[in-house]
Amino acid sequence: MTTDINTHTISVLVDNESGVLARVIGLFSGRGYNIESLTVAEVDPAEKLSRITLVTSGTPMVIEQIKAQLGRLVPVRRVHDLTVEGPHVSRELALVKVVGTGEKRVEALRIADIFRANVVDSSNESFVFEIVGKTDKLNAFINLMEPLGLVDVARTGAAAIARGSESI
Amino acid sequence: MAQEPMLGAKIVLKALVDQGVDVIFGYPGGAVLPIYDELFQQNHIKHVLVRHEQAAVHAAEGYARSTGKVGVVLVTSGPGATNAVTGLTDAMLDSVPVVCLTGQVPTHLIGTDGFQEADTTGITRQCTKHNYLVKSPNDLARVMHEAFYVASTGRPGPVVIDLPKDVLMTKGEYMPPTRIKHKSYKPQVKGDLKRIEEAVALLANAKKPIIYAGGGVVNSGPAACQLLTNFARMSGFPVTLTLMGLGAYPGNDKQFLGMLGMHGTYEANMAMHDCDVMLCIGARFDDRVTGLLSAFSPNSKKIHIDIDPSSINKNVAVDVAVVGDVAHVIEDMTKVWKSAQIRPDQDALAAWWAQITEWRAVECLKFVQDGDVIKPQYAIQRLYELTKDRETYITTEVGQHQMWAAQHYRFDKPNHWMTSGGLGTMGYGFPSAVGVQMAHPDALVVDISGEASFMMNMQELATAVQYRLPVKIFILNNRYMGMVRQWQELLHGSRYSESYSEALPDFVKLAEAFGAVGMRVEKADQLDDAIRAAIATNGPVLMDICVSQTENCYPMIPSGKPHNEMLLGPVADGEQAIDAEGQILV
């Protein structure tokens, strides 16, 4: 088996009961796995199901372990490795605050336009941009904002779903 | 169907009775008083009052592992629960089915740092298979039944139910156990037939096969052990067992190579290293077993049968993995084997056995008992010879005595050997023996112990005396934490930092102070009589066996070394024998 480290996006469907997120996070910290991002929200209020999207990295053996260990948790219903199971869509939202005046302020607005970021708050010397896209796109946008007065970033982490008609 | 609502504490008791529980191990306290009050008013369940909550869990483990049933613990909130954590972790690592009921402050006080409040579900999340905080008496019955189901099915393990006091004192609906269909927890029992056929195909062509089986076979049940034995006899393959697996295959059988691993036999480890097909059944390629991973059995195809998918490819990548219950999978393997009329290469197998016979001739476990000073191995050997014809259960603590017991006591049946393998908990053996004796009142139960380990839970002498449990404590007293001393000798220039058992009590007087019988054995020729006298004594006996202080446990795979580089005896310079990478390992 290869020892290359790759990034994987994993979807986990769990019973939305108290402590379930702590179980998942505790598993990662306890066993020394990486969490690059983690998002969670209830997706089926009637069935009380939450969906966790996890972005993690590791060798194929470690990724297999992560999936098996997640599957072992009692409130976990399903574990899917979107990265290996086929094409999927992944999106992340970021709120980016940029403070500045004059040319820098104009340049920030111009780049935001190129990236299709929306202005969701504005004052005489600041903007809050809302940008949605793949993690790479958000990274690129934030890097460009750095010299233009970037002061604050809030990111959701990736939410992901398989393409096509199959459901989790 | 609708029953009269009943008090939460009553629901707990009723659920226990309906789950077939006859004994629980516990210690009272404020938060669980309602349950103790219900216990007082019934006759179905016997409560054993331990003297420390850790001992309650170990006792429940001993009960569980010697019966195959779920062990039950009842402790109070806060310190009661935190004291139980070591036991729970022990049960987790060794896959022992335990249900532990912990008291909790009333729900409206949770989070206020109330008296004897601890975040029990938070603290035990990583050391249990699952845990629950029950917030309504109407959930109690369901959670209780579910906990027994989760603890005892799949890969067994400990389950904690945290019970706020108000929930115990409020009325709720009871429901009897039904066939549980859990929404998310569904352990796979049957193995995939395709994988099983692949496994059989590999085994059929094996020239140097080995069966490496572990505690999973014991957990699967006596039927699994019989199926394993039948499969081994049918195939003619050699068998080695892990520490946890001892008893899963007859210890006196000619196909048995002994235990493998760090203090396993030379023949078992050499056969593991040189085999061409390895059949791992209910074992988990633990670091004590594999030695240096990169050199672990380098030329073999590996088959792994385990009920826990996370055990597959965790430490060692295998060629064929079968997820399922051991008994089911071996049964199916046997069917496939028979229907395909498989007959392995007999010449190759004969040559393999000839090689194994050569390794056996090294006699890696031999020792010389001469003079008065008792060799610890000799003490175990005599204990074995004098107890093998009785129904005997052995528990151990952790250290040299544990390894000597594993090497020199031979187990022909499963569920007769209770030891702390994964966590390595000193202080496990004596309370575990208490639990075993509760389950098997007429059997001989012996805790093979060291003087340091014994002192970690010696307060349980009071428990043994109170319930008239005739447990025999067989202390191999070398006045050292022997395994620590052995490593210091090997790796730290014999600088015995803090490993000397200074200021030991007089164990005979100690036993007598508790109302038990104490014996001291100082000479080899006194041993047999002392063992016979202890067995004949109708009550707990503490045997202080003064053994050689300098004896070390061999053979040994030094840390960071592969199976074929065992030390068969003392080396001149241990730091030379173990490289820097090995020295950082434990």
From TrEMBL, chain A:
<dbReference type="InterPro" id="IPR004789">
    <property type="entry name" value="Acetalactate_synth_ssu"/>
</dbReference>
<protein>
    <recommendedName>
        <fullName>Acetolactate synthase small subunit</fullName>
        <ecNumber>2.2.1.6</ecNumber>
    </recommendedName>
</protein>
<dbReference type="GO" id="GO:0003984">
    <property type="term" value="F:acetolactate synthase activity"/>
</dbReference>
<dbReference type="InterPro" id="IPR045865">
    <property type="entry name" value="ACT-like_dom_sf"/>
</dbReference>
<dbReference type="InterPro" id="IPR027271">
    <property type="entry name" value="Acetolactate_synth/TF_NikR_C"/>
</dbReference>
<dbReference type="Pfam" id="PF10369">
    <property type="entry name" value="ALS_ss_C"/>
</dbReference>
<dbReference type="GO" id="GO:0009099">
    <property type="term" value="P:L-valine biosynthetic process"/>
</dbReference>
<dbReference type="InterPro" id="IPR039557">
    <property type="entry name" value="AHAS_ACT"/>
</dbReference>
<keyword id="KW-0808">Transferase</keyword>
<dbReference type="GO" id="GO:0009097">
    <property type="term" value="P:isoleucine biosynthetic process"/>
</dbReference>
<dbReference type="InterPro" id="IPR054480">
    <property type="entry name" value="AHAS_small-like_ACT"/>
</dbReference>
<comment type="pathway">
    <text>Amino-acid biosynthesis; L-isoleucine biosynthesis; L-isoleucine from 2-oxobutanoate: step 1/4.</text>
</comment>
<keyword id="KW-0100">Branched-chain amino acid biosynthesis</keyword>
<comment type="similarity">
    <text>Belongs to the acetolactate synthase small subunit family.</text>
</comment>
<dbReference type="GO" id="GO:1990610">
    <property type="term" value="F:acetolactate synthase regulator activity"/>
</dbReference>
<dbReference type="Pfam" id="PF22629">
    <property type="entry name" value="ACT_AHAS_ss"/>
</dbReference>
<feature type="domain" description="ACT">
    <location>
        <begin position="9"/>
        <end position="84"/>
    </location>
</feature>
<dbReference type="InterPro" id="IPR019455">
    <property type="entry name" value="Acetolactate_synth_ssu_C"/>
</dbReference>
<dbReference type="GO" id="GO:0005829">
    <property type="term" value="C:cytosol"/>
</dbReference>
<comment type="subunit">
    <text>Dimer of large and small chains.</text>
</comment>
<keyword id="KW-0028">Amino-acid biosynthesis</keyword>
<dbReference type="InterPro" id="IPR002912">
    <property type="entry name" value="ACT_dom"/>
</dbReference>
From TrEMBL, chain B:
<dbReference type="InterPro" id="IPR039368">
    <property type="entry name" value="AHAS_TPP"/>
</dbReference>
<keyword id="KW-0274">FAD</keyword>
<keyword id="KW-0479">Metal-binding</keyword>
<dbReference type="GO" id="GO:0005948">
    <property type="term" value="C:acetolactate synthase complex"/>
</dbReference>
<comment type="pathway">
    <text>Amino-acid biosynthesis; L-isoleucine biosynthesis; L-isoleucine from 2-oxobutanoate: step 1/4.</text>
</comment>
<dbReference type="Pfam" id="PF02775">
    <property type="entry name" value="TPP_enzyme_C"/>
</dbReference>
<keyword id="KW-0808">Transferase</keyword>
<dbReference type="Pfam" id="PF00205">
    <property type="entry name" value="TPP_enzyme_M"/>
</dbReference>
<dbReference type="GO" id="GO:0000287">
    <property type="term" value="F:magnesium ion binding"/>
</dbReference>
<dbReference type="GO" id="GO:0030976">
    <property type="term" value="F:thiamine pyrophosphate binding"/>
</dbReference>
<keyword id="KW-0285">Flavoprotein</keyword>
<protein>
    <recommendedName>
        <fullName>Acetolactate synthase</fullName>
        <ecNumber>2.2.1.6</ecNumber>
    </recommendedName>
</protein>
<dbReference type="GO" id="GO:0050660">
    <property type="term" value="F:flavin adenine dinucleotide binding"/>
</dbReference>
<dbReference type="GO" id="GO:0009097">
    <property type="term" value="P:isoleucine biosynthetic process"/>
</dbReference>
<feature type="domain" description="Thiamine pyrophosphate enzyme central">
    <location>
        <begin position="196"/>
        <end position="332"/>
    </location>
</feature>
<dbReference type="InterPro" id="IPR029035">
    <property type="entry name" value="DHS-like_NAD/FAD-binding_dom"/>
</dbReference>
<dbReference type="GO" id="GO:0003984">
    <property type="term" value="F:acetolactate synthase activity"/>
</dbReference>
<keyword id="KW-0100">Branched-chain amino acid biosynthesis</keyword>
<keyword id="KW-0460">Magnesium</keyword>
<feature type="domain" description="Thiamine pyrophosphate enzyme N-terminal TPP-binding">
    <location>
        <begin position="8"/>
        <end position="121"/>
    </location>
</feature>
<dbReference type="InterPro" id="IPR012000">
    <property type="entry name" value="Thiamin_PyroP_enz_cen_dom"/>
</dbReference>
<dbReference type="InterPro" id="IPR011766">
    <property type="entry name" value="TPP_enzyme_TPP-bd"/>
</dbReference>
